[in-house]
Amino acid sequence: MSRMMADCRRFPSESNCSLTIIGEEEEVVRAAAEHAATVHGHENTEELHKQIREFLEPAETYSNDPRAHEAMPA
Ligand SMILES: [Zn+2]
What's the CA-to-centroid distance between 71 and ligand 1, angstroms? Predict the structure, then answer.
């Protein structure tokens, strides 16, 4: 099974978060949801899990270089 990536650096955050989570999809969704709740004050809901799933990128696209922020989807 291919690994996926949730990259906090992709979105603007007050703490300028630099966390990247890589693993199998279910692991990443769970870890990213916990991270979003504890660090970024989101509610850990089904809706959040769904959003995170849509943000996932293939782990192969990971780069340690800084990346430009994208607008948070409305
Ligand atoms: Zn973060």
Answer: 15
Which pair of tokens denotes residue 7?
């990259």
How many angstroms separate the alpha carbon of residue 16 from the centre of ligand 1?
Answer: 8
The string of pLDDT tens digits covering residues 18-71 is 999 999 999 999 999 999 999 999 999 999 999 999 999 999 999 999 999 988
Neighbours of 44 (CB within 10 A): 14
SS3 32: helix
Q: Is the dihedral of CA 48, 17, 35, 8 positive or negative?
A: positive
